[in-house]
Amino acid sequence: MPDDQIAAGLVGLLFIAVEIVTPLVGALVAARAFRRRGRNARLAMTGCLVMLPGPIVSTLGMAVGLEPLMHVVGTYMAPHVLTAMTLPFHLVGFGLILAGALSDPPSAPSLPQPPLAVDARPY
User: Fold this and answer.
1) pLDDT digits (tens, 9 = 90+) for 24-54
2) CA-to-CA distance for 32 and 112, rounded, in angstroms?
3) Between vectors from CA 81 to CA 67 and to CA 47, what angle results, nearest 5°?
4) pLDDT higher than 70, residue 120
5) Nearest-CA neighbor of 99 among 47, 53, 23?
6) Which of 17, 42, 44, 115 makes the best surface tag, with the fewest CB within 10 Å?
7) 100 burial class (0-12, 13-18, 19+ CB within 10 angstroms)?
């Protein structure tokens, strides 16, 4: 196997690892923000976890089922079919992350206003 193919395979594995690790790190960061952000952090964490199966399905599809898929839909269409299989995971996850980021933050309980100081000096 030429060195170029080995290097390309290693770069591809690096990209896949980043695609899988990034949603996991996002979910952990959102889980740590539960107390401060409440519902918003829950939405963001759910979005990250929904995005996680996308690269896994893509990787397994290329490793296991690309050749049979190429026989069914054609050589040039098979990667597009794999992309279409992972697209719902990315879109729904991204939508949930945006919903968590753009929704109003939880309101802090309002403290009673201190009484106004009255000046007792005569004018």
Assistant:
1) 999 999 999 888 888 889 999 999 999 999 9
2) 30
3) 120
4) no
5) 47
6) 115
7) buried
